[in-house]
Amino acid sequence: NAGVTQTPKFQVLKTGQSMTLQCAQDMNHNSMYWYRQDPGMGLRLIYYSASEGTTDKGEVPNGYNVSRLNKREFSLRLESAAPSQTSVYFCASSDAGAGNTIYFGEGSWLTVV
Amino acid sequence: ILNVEQSPQSLHVQEGDSTNFTCSFPSSNFYALHWYRWETAKSPEALFVMTLNGDEKKKGRISATLNTKEGYSYLYIKGSQPEDSATYLCALRDYGQNFVFGPGTRLSVLP
Predict the structure, then answer these.
(1) Of A26, B22, B87, B91, which residue is the least packed, with the fewest Cβ within 10 Å?
(2) Closest CA of chain B from A39, distance in Å
């Protein structure tokens, strides 16, 4: 069972470069999420998609764009990377309902120099 | 906007000690409270989901309680083992299907 897969796992970018983080889930979940994790800050929501065709801003959306390509895939794009976007990025998915947990990908380590 | 706090930020205990940590939230207007276990270099794994005031859940040596009236949840680990070393995350699921995570409690169990 693949669960949530995200790529790339590691990336180094120069300031101003752009890149897209890819995410796919095979659990037929409606909701998908992008979080960033920084030391002492926990997981902070960047964007989420409650269902195919919808996306909404989370707590820290500035500098990012997302695309919910279909039910399986949810990509995160950095248009012009900045050093402040150095972080670990986690994609996740969940189904609706209070008892349904959130499943995470393995994380993408991004460094912007 | 939901707010989740966790304490302590980090904790060191000896193998065999029992321990507990707290998740607190000023508002009880949420769908469910989740606890996750997050080991270094892995992705978070679900431990418990609780929805009702007074809920108690148990899995082996780990248990959790929920008090929505006073705005907290406790996670207990009985007889800590080195393999329990991890960061424990509390999250609230809101009615918009979002998960708001606390900063976590980092537990180190020393052999």
Answers:
(1) A26
(2) 9
Tens-digit pLDDT profile for residues B78-98: 999 999 999 999 999 988 778
The percent of residues in chain B predicted with pLDDT above 90, rounded, is: 78
Pick from B49, B47, B34: which is nearest to B4 by CA? B34
Q: With an 8 Å Cβ cutoff, is A58 touching chain B?
A: yes
Q: Identify the band that residue B1 occupies on the pLDDT scale cut at 50, 70 and 90.
A: low
Structure token pair of residue B17: 């000690």
- The answer to whether A85 and A91 have CB atoms below 8 angstroms apart is no
pLDDT in tens, B62-78: 999 999 999 999 999 99
User: Cβ B96–A102 below 8 Å, yes or no?
Assistant: no
Nearest residue, CB atoms, B46 vs list A33, A35, A101: A101
Which DSSP string do the residues of B21-32 spell out, in sequence order? EEEE-S----SE
Chosen for mutation from A34, A44, A101 (greatest number of chain B CBs closer than 10 Å) is: A101
What is the rounded CA–CA span in Å between residue B14 and residue A46? 37
